[in-house]
Design goal:
mainly beta, transcription, DNA-binding transcription factor activity, DNA-binding, Jelly Rolls, HTH_ArsR_DNA-bd_dom, 4 helices, 13-stranded antiparallel beta sheet, 2 domains
């Protein structure tokens, strides 16, 4: 589950703000249980137990179903990721560009793979030929088990301007046929051939539906990813503020009309668990691949 620091996440934080409900989560992490079993394990009345279960269900942390007169509860979340607002003071101007996830210009992918749009799959699933369909620009989700996709970031920096730092944010996850909430994958990102870093994705999530994912997407398919921030500066390259590689902004040749961004998973990685890229109207973050270019001017 992916949550942020906004009012819509309050039910999740409220549900976790209770020693009793934490004990219930631990019980359900081992087995499905009915109300009577949970009540006896915690020495609580059925009424109090149901009150706690209702709060956990309202937060989408557990799932309940009826079996005759019994109410069976099960855990539907493997992990909860909290995204805090990121603030960065930089005394530079910036240009911001967003590239749709389906607007890649080159690819080399292996099944399982595919493209999805607002109304269904785009082309045939698990057939890399369809990655070059003209309709790929309508994709809101792109996935593959091995390989990469490349995007061209337009260079709108003027001659008298100097790039000081580049930030790239996108929603990423692993790729497993349908889904697997515990499926690690080492995802890499390069810019103009220089390695920015690797991020170990923890899974291909379907523990709860993505906030934006279209209703046609099956419940057991990729639902959402985790929003990641890659940064290249004069101090090195970072992922979510953590050091990732020695690549400096000065190491990049930024003179061309566009810059090549490559995202994928290598066959010799420690965890070859595929890659899913979420774009607008998919997952939990309504954005494509956002690129923020900080620059100084000769007049500064």
């Amino acid at each position: 589950m992916d949550v942020d620091i906004t009012e819509k996440s309050i039910p999740v934080f409220t549900a976790l703000d209770s020693p009793v409900r934490l004990k219930i989560i631990n019980l359900l992490s081992k087995n499905k249980m009915n109300v009577k079993e949970i009540s006896q394990a915690l020495h609580l009345s059925s009424t109090i137990t149901i009150m706690h279960l209702n709060k956990l269900e309202a937060a989408n942390i557990i799932h309940t179903e009826k079996q005759g007169t019994r109410r069976i509860s099960s855990l539907r979340v493997d992990n909860i990721n909290v995204s805090f607002p990121k603030q960065l003071y930089v005394p530079y101007d910036f240009k911001e560009i967003e590239v749709p996830v389906g607007q890649y210009t080159e690819y080399d992918v292996k099944p399982s793979c595919g493209l999805a749009g607002q109304h269904g799959f785009i082309g045939k699933v698990d057939n890399p030929k369809y990655f070059m369909t003209p309709d790929r620009d309508k994709a809101g989700m792109v996935w593959f088990s091995k390989g990469y996709v490349e995007y061209q970031i337009p260079n709108f920096i003027e001659d008298q301007q100097h790039v000081e730092m580049i930030e790239i944010s996108l929603e990423l996850g692993s790729e497993f046929p349908f889904s697997n909430n515990n499926w690690k994958s080492d995802l890499f990102l390069t810019l103009n051939g220089k390695e920015i870093g690797y991020w170990e994705s923890p899974g291909d999530f379907s523990d709860t539906r993505g906030r934006l994912t279209p209703s046609w997407v099956y419940d057991d398919m990729n639902q959402y990813g985790i929003l990641k921030l890659f940064r290249v500066s004069k101090h090195g390259s970072f992922i979510d503020g953590h050091y990732a590689s020695d690549t400096l902004i000065s190491d990049l040749d930024l003179s061309g009309d566009s810059w090549t961004l490559r995202i994928g998973v290598k066959p010799n990685a420690n965890y070859v668990g595929g890659c899913t890229i979420f774009g607008r109207q998919f997952g939990n973050h309504d954005q494509g691949i956002k690129c923020k270019i900080y620059y100084s001017s000769e007049d500064d």
